[in-house]
Amino acid sequence: MDLVRIEPWQEGDLDLLRRINTPDMKRYVGGPESEEKVLARHRRYVDFAGTGRGCMFRVVALREGAAVGSIGYWERVWHGDTVYEMGWSILPAYQGRGLATAALGAAVAQARARRTYRYAHAFPSVDNAASNAVCRKAGFTLLGETEFEFPPGALMRSHNWRLDLTAAPE
Length: 170
Prior knowledge:
The protein is an alpha+beta fold. It is built from four helices and seven strands, in the order E-H-H-E-E-E-H-E-H-E-E. A seven-stranded mixed β-sheet has the order 1-2-3-4-5-7-6, with helices on both faces. A hairpin with a 4-residue loop joins strand 2 (54-61) and strand 3 (66-78). The radius of gyration is 15 Å and the shape is globular. The mean pLDDT is 92.
């Protein structure tokens, strides 16, 4: 049974981004952003799909028919290779139900269908047990710990998870 669908980020998703921008939701990635930064992020998300460099999506829980988070993939140069980086957020009331893993599977399918890059990476904080579990459940391979810059200008200890987009889906 499908748990979620992902839909490209749209103008009407600003409120969802604001609900994601809380101290609890942003504790592993530098804390909440200012309203100015949230508005700029929203504009980037809306405009992103047309660039060909990736896509941001809202995550819709099918049982409720409600937008419950975000997920996306985008180009990043990592150790000299261009890869897709993936990231997600699921609102607290919807966590623990497998929605992030289902959304990641859907986003991976989208990235895989583009046939652009061999690898997708995710870099959750080493302290973010839930996001690390999502990577494991979605079939990513843990390559180890790394220092990762996020938000810009700040280094965090992250796990480096990788998925081969050219391999057959499991």
